Amino acid sequence: MSSDSDIPRQDELARERLIDLAAEFYDQFAAGEVPSMQIPTRTKSNIEYDEEQGVWVYGDRHSTRSANTVGGAQKLLKAIYVIDFLQNQLQENRSSTLRELYYLSESWDLDAAQFNSQDESNGLIEDLEIVSHVKREDFHMRPEESGAKVMGPLLIREQTNRGERQIHCQDDVGQGGYQIPNNVDTIEFLDHDADFVMAVETGGMRDRLVENGFDEEYNTIVVHLGGQPARATRRLTKRLHDELDLPVTVFTDGDPWSYRIFGSISYGSIKSAHLSEYLATPEARFIGIQPSDIVEYDLPTDPLSDSDVNALQSELEDPRFQTDYWREQIELQLDIDKKAEQQALASRGLDFVTDTYLPERLEDMGIL
Amino acid sequence: MTSYQSELGGGGNVAEELAKGQRAISIAEFFEKNKHMLGFDSGARGLVTAVKEAVDNALDATEEAGLLPDIYVEIAEAGDYYRLVIEDNGPGITKEQIPKVFGKLLYGSRFHAREQSRGQQGIGISAAVLYSQLTSGKPAKITSKTQGEEQAQYFELIIDTDSNEPEISVEDTTTWERPHGTRIELEMEANMRARQQLHDYVKHTAVVNPHARIEFREPSEHLKYERATDQMPAETTEIRPHPHGVELGTLIKMLGATDSYSVSGFLQSEFTRVGQKTADSVVDNFRDRHYGREMAWSPPASHEDADIEAAITDAVNGKGQEATSAFAGAVADAVATRDRLAHHELRAVVEKAADDAEVDSGVTFGDTVRENAVDAAWREIVVGREADCFRLVDEATTSRKDDAAVEALARRVATGFTGNDDARDRITHETLSNYVERAAERTKERDDVSFGETARENVVESFWAVARTVPDDAPSVKETEGDRDTASELLEAMRETDILAPPTDCLAPITDELVEAGLRKEYDADFFAAATRDAEVHGGDPFIVEAGIAYGGDLPAEGQVDVLRFANRVPLVYQRGACASTDVVKRINWRNYGLDQPGGSGMPNGPAVLMIHVASTNVPFTSESKDAIANVPNIEDEIELALREAAREMKRYLNKRRSMEKRQRKQNVIADILPRMADKLSEVTERDQLNVGDSLARIMNNVLVEREVEDGHVKLVVRNFSDTNADPDITDIVGVDPGQPEDAQVIEMDGEWFVKWSPTVAAGETAVLEYDVSDDATFDVSVEGIEDAKLTVNA
Fold this sequence. Notes:
Pfam family, one (chain B): Top6b_C
Oligomer: heterodimer
Shape of chain B: extended
Helix content of chain B: 40-55%
Keywords (chain B): ATP-binding, Coiled coil, DNA-binding, Isomerase, Nucleotide-binding, Topoisomerase
Strand content of chain B: 15-25%
Distance between the termini of chain A: 35 Å
Distance between the termini of chain B: 89 Å
Order of helices and strands of chain A: HEEEEHEHHEEEEEEEHHEHEHHEHEHHEH
Binding site for ATP (chain B): 57, 88, 109-110, 119-126, 626
Helix content of chain A: 40-55%
Largest sheet of chain B: 8 strands, mixed
Radius of gyration of chain B: 41 Å
Number of helices of chain A: 13
Strand content of chain A: 15-25%
Strand order of the largest sheet of chain B: 5-4-3-6-2-1-7-8
Structural class of chain B: alpha+beta
Coiled coil (chain B): 636-663
Protein name (chain B): Type 2 DNA topoisomerase 6 subunit B
C-alpha cells in the first residue's frame, strides 16, 4: 500500500490482484474442491498490538467463507460479481461510491448476486481489501460522505479530475476551510507554518476555534473530525504527522463515544485494523474533555446513561485502552457518573476555551 | 324407587290403590319410552344407529363363519320415510331363529360370552326393528338363506311391545341370488342430517376392517370400499371370567349355579387362570378372612418362669407317672423345637404325643385329658406373650423409638390378646388392627409417644405375618352362597390373591400391520404408523389397545386432526368429547411429535389422522348407546402408550423429512449458484468453462455419478462424498452393444442395451465402472437406491 502517485500503474496492480483472487476460486473449482476464502475475524477480541508499527492490527483468528452453506455460497457469489465489477471499473478508469455499488447490484442479471443492504456491500468491500491487500480507494471506491475540513497554515497541491490545484488552507479557503478529498494520496504537501495539529470532534467547536483565530494565534492545523472520522481524515492526520513531523492532538467531548473517536485516530479502528499502519497515528494525544477536567473546571454535565456505562466498561476491556492513563480516567468517570460536551466550556465564556482551557492543557502536555 | 309403606295415610287402602296401577313393563315398552338410551333419539341419529347395528351384526356373522365380509348398505327415500337395506354374505339364519333374532329384544348369543365381539346385549338390531315400526308402522322385511339351501326364507314381522315377542305378518320362501347371507329392510322416519356421521361410520368401518368389502349407497352418493387383505381377524375363543373381574352379585349367582361342593373346586371350574395352587391361595385368604388367624407365640425357654412339662404333669391325673412324664416330656420337647407356635399347632403336638404315649404305655389318653393338657401348655406359652409382643413391635418400628415407648406399646397390644374371649388368640386382621390402634392411642395419651400411621401398619403386618392360617375347613359353596358376608369374604380373597392376567386369545386385535393397511387404503397420506400394545386387564377383562397415525399427503393441513375411535372394531361416531380416547389425545404434548398444538395441550392441528382401537371382552362405555369409552385409568394409560409409540415413528419421519427438505432447498440454491459463480470466474479470468459437479457433490456430501468418454472408452465414475456406504443401482442404457463389461449385467431390449451395476462405494471412496463401445453411442444413465437429495448425476 504505497502512496505511489503513478496512478495508472497502481490501478493495473489493483486489477491484477482482483483477477488473481478470481483465479484462486477458479482453481478450487477445477480441482473439485469447495471454493472458500479466509478472512480475519473482525472483532474486538481479535486485534493485537503490533509492536513494530505501534498500532493495533488483526490477530490470528480467521473465519472461512465457503460455498459449503447457502449463506456462504451467496457471499462468495456476490464477491465474485463485485470482483468483476471492480476490475471493469479499474479498466475503464471510472470510480463509484459504496452506495452506488449497492444500487448497482440491482442491475445484475442474477438476483442471488444482489445485495440485501448497504452494510452487506460495505462489508464485502472490506473483505476484498483484506484478501487482496488493496485499499478500497485503489479500487476507486469512495465513501458517500465527503472528507472533513482543514483550516491552518498549510500549502498543498491536489490532483483533481480537472487538473492540479495549489491551495493554501488559510489564505485560499473560506470560513469553512479546505475540503479533504476522498483519496488523500492525491494531495502533496508543499509548505507549512504549523506547530501542531488539532483534530476537533464537533463542528461547533471547530467554528469557535476558527472564529477566535486559534489556528492563527497558535499556528495550528485544525482538522474537523465530524463524529467518527472518515478514512480520508485519519489518513490525512497520519500524513501530517509522518511527513511534516507535527504533533497530533485530539479534542473531543468527554464521553465514552468520543474516547473511541480518539482511539480510532490513535490506535486504529476494529473494522479497518487491516489498514491500521496506513491510517492510525499512534503518537496522537488526547486533550480532553477529560473526566478530570469535569471535576477541575466544574463543568456543566449530564448523568451517564446505561449505554454510556456499558460503553465505558467495554472500553475497560478494550485492548486499545489498556493504559494507566485511560484506566484512571474511565474509572473516574464511572465514579462521578457524569459526562460533558466540549461546548460545556462556554459556561465560562466564549473565549474560555481558546484563552484558558486549551493553552493550559497544551502546556501541561508539553506541546506549547 | 319410592316405596310406599302401608301405614302411610293411616289405612291399608292406599297401597292397594297404588297396586292397581303397578304392573310389569315389557322391555320393548321400556325401549319405546327410552329410545335415546340406545341411540335412537332423533331421526338423523336413528338412521346412523340402525346402519351401525346392522353392519356390526353382519360383520360378526360373517367373521364367525370364517367368511370374508361382503356388505351392502343402501339408504333410499321412500315417500315420507327412508328405506334402509343391509345385506351380508354371512352364513344365514335358520328359519326358526329369524323371528327371535329380529323380533325380540335381548335375544342373542353374546351377552353371556366373554369374548370380543361387536354386539353384546342383543338389543341392537331388534331395537332398529322396533324403531322402524314405531316411526313408520311398517314391518321389517327379512330375507335369509343358509348355505346349500335352494330357497331363501322371507319374513315380515314387527315386535309386540307388550310381550316382547315377534309378530309375524308374512312368512314365505323366495329366491335370492346370494348363495347364503341375510338381508334386512327397514322403513323409518329419518333424515340425512347426519350424512357426515354415516359416511364417517362406513369409512371408519372400512379402515378398521380391511378384510371387508363394503358398498354404501345413499340418495346422493354411491361409495365402494374395497378389501385390502384376505387375512381374517384372528378367531377368538370364549373365556371364563377372571377372578379379578366379577362382582358380588355375579359371584353369588355363580355359586348358586355351580355343581362344585368346595370353594376350591368352584374356583377351578368356573374361573380362568385358577388351578390347584391359585385356588389354595384364594382359599387360604378366604379362611383368614372368615375365621381369622391364630397368633403364634415363641414358646418359653426352659430357664424362664414357665415350665410346660410341669404344667402338663399337673394337669394329667391318674395316667401313671411313667406315661404322664413321657407324655409331658414329649410335648415339652416338641414345643421347644418350634420357633413359634399357634394354638392349633400346640393341639397337633399334644395329639401326637398322646397317641405315641398310648402306643408306648398302653394307657388311654382321652379327649378330656388331651384338652386339659393343651390348656395347661397354652397357659404356659402365653406367659411370654408380652416379651414376644415387644420383639415384634421392636422389629416393626424404627430404631429411633426408645425402648420404653416400644415396651409400652407392646404391653398394650399384649393386653388386647389377654382380653380376647378366644383363648386360642384367634384374630381377624381387623381385630388385630384394632388392638394396635387402641394400644397406639393409649401410648400417645399416657406416655406422649405417638406411633404414626405407617408405624402402626408395620406393627400390624409384623403380627399378621407370624400369625397362622387356621386348619378349619373353608365354608362350602352352599354356606358361602347362603351368607352374603361370607360371599363377600370370598370375593375379597379372590381380589387380594395374585392371579395371572386373563388369556388374550379371546381378543382379536387388528394388528399393527392391518391398522396401517386400513389407514393406507382409505387415506391418501405420506406416512403411516401403527402400534399394537400387549394385552392388559381392567376389572378382570383383558383388553388390547392399538393406535395408528396417518400424516401428510391429501389430508387437510388446516384445522384439528381427525380422531378415529373404535371399540371392538366398531367405529364410535358420537360423543367424541366424552370419550377417554379424546381425553388422552388432548393430554399428550403433540408438539414433541412435530404436530402443531395451540397452547401446548388439547386437540393437535395438522394434516394427520389418529386412530385408536380398544379391543376387550368388555369395553367399558359411558352409556348403553356405546358412543364413548369410559375413563378407566388402565385403558387410558394404554391408549397413551400406543399413541406415543406410533407418534414416535411419526416424529422420526417428520424430522427426516424436514432435514431432507432443508437439504433439498440447500441443494437447489447451491446448484443454482455454483454454475453462475463458475461462469463469472471463467469470464473474469478468461479461462475455459468450469464443471462444478465435483464441488457441488462435495458440498452436499452427495454421491456423484459422472461420465467420461474417450475414444469409445466409457467410464462412469461414482464418487461417494457422504459419510456412509452407498449401494446404488446404476443402469446405463446404451444405443450400441457394449460387450460384457466387468461386474455388470447386460440385457438387450429392442436395440438398446441395459447395463446394470450394483457397486458398494464406501464413504469417501470412488468406484469406476468401465466399458468400451465401438462407435458413437447414445447413453442414458439412471441411478436407483440413493435419495434424490443425496445424489448428483452428471452423465
